[in-house]
Specification:
alpha/beta, globular, Rossmann fold
Length: 265
Amino acid sequence: MWTTQPAYSSHNGLAVARSGQGPTILLIHGVGLRMESWNGLKSHLSNFEVICIDLPGHGKSDDMGCHITDVSKLTAYLKEALETFPHYMIGHSLGALVALDWACKYKEGLKGVIALNAIFERTEEARLAVIKRAEILASEAQIDPAITLERWFGTNDTPERQACETWLCENRIEQYAQAYGIFARSFGADRKGLKNLHIPSFFLTGSLEPNSTPEMSHKMAKLAPHGQSYIIEGAAHMAPMTHAAQIADNITRFIRNCENRHKGN
């Protein structure tokens, strides 16, 4: 399930994989992960063309340039790398912030956006705690994934946990720290951008998620003119891997409604 997928390199060094036919979906993973973290979800999206990427500095992508210092610059880098714009964007964690940033800025061809485990207006205390973790990571000689894995999976030793452990340990530590720093410094999705988001938007998170909480997803959905939210019971931060079938059912229903909406127009 979590094995490496074949990919090609974009003109600016981003690893990209394409499969299937139908409306185009772009999948953007979170910090320290790679495109293979979407494998479980992809297996349920056979009616779509699915584009997966490795974020810069992750997996098979080239290193992230020092000019990429925030979510906005990361979004611009991805936009430059892709040959065609997607119809739908799905992002997880940091990837969700990129997907929402893209949807607020680049509307060409986009019909809907889906944010999984996205943060929104977290407290300064919570943000500083994440910044502290990023600073500790940047000072380490090698990656120790134990604390991260416990936060994501508890004590459960599952194939998903083992895959994440491998990916985390294979990261280039300075690149991992840079991406983590981008996520740490962000307060989350932009309130003004959400209010002006005039395409359908869908916010999902796990009921056991302590950071990108259910309350955050509900708040974002209420701000967005065509927003909706859904909470996955018993799921935590790695819901796209642990609850892939349930998430895929909701995504497929959301996209079907978006397609019908466009046909009606």
